[in-house]
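Z., the sequence and structure:
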Amino acid sequence: MDFLFLPLLISLPFMKKEVAGKTVLVPSPQNHMQAGPVPPDSSESDIRAEIYRTIILRYQNFIEESESKSISELKELVKPHDKTVLEVKISILDAFHPYVYDDSFLMAAQAAMTHLSTIRTVPLPLNFWLSFEDMERIKAADSIDRAVYLCSILRSLDNDNARVYIAENKKPYVLFEFKGQAYLIEVETGKSTLSPSAEAALKTITDTKLIYSFNDKLYEDLSEQQ
C-alpha cells in the first residue's frame, strides 16, 4: 500500500547536558530572534505582535530552561492515551466496522497522516513543546511536535513499535513495523521507505547520523552506534 506522506519542516535536535545531577536534553545553539524598529505605519495587530516578540525575547532563556526535557520526560511526550489523541483515534476508527489491526492498520495510518495535514508546519522561534490540544486548537506546530503527535496516534492504533528518530542534521523521522516490514517516514520531505526490517530501513539514511530515538516506552542513544 502506498503512503502519501506530507512534508514537514526541520526542527532542532537536542544536546545532552548535566543539570542538577541529571541528564537533560536542551536545544542546540541557535540564533535568537532579531528585533527591529517598528514602522510608523504599522497596524495594531503588527504592534501587538511586536510586543509579544519583545516579551518572548526577554524571557527566552527562562522559557527554554523550563522546556528542557530529561530522558524520562522525553519519553512522556509520546502519549497514546492522551485525550486529544484518543479523539483522533475514534474519528479514524469510525471508518472501520470493525477495526481489525492486522487488516486495517495501514489504512488507519494513512488516515492519521491525512488528519495531520490539517495542522500547518510552523517552526517555533525557541524551544517550546506544544501539547496535542494546543496543536489542534492552533492548527499549527513545528516538525518535531508533529512527529511526536503522529507517533502517538500510531501507538494509539495498537502499533507497539512506532517511534520518533532525530538525526544529527536536524531531520526528524518516524518508523514503525507491520507484518514483517518496516516503514520509515522522513518527515522533512514526506518520503517513505519500505524495508524488510527496521535495521534495513535505518540503513537507508546515508546523508546523516541518527542521534537518538524514543517513544512512550523507551529512549535509545544512537550516537555511538553509527
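The domain at 70-221 is CATH 3.10.620.30 (C8orf32 fold). The CA atoms of residues 22 and 39 lie 46 Å apart.

Let me know what you think.
H.
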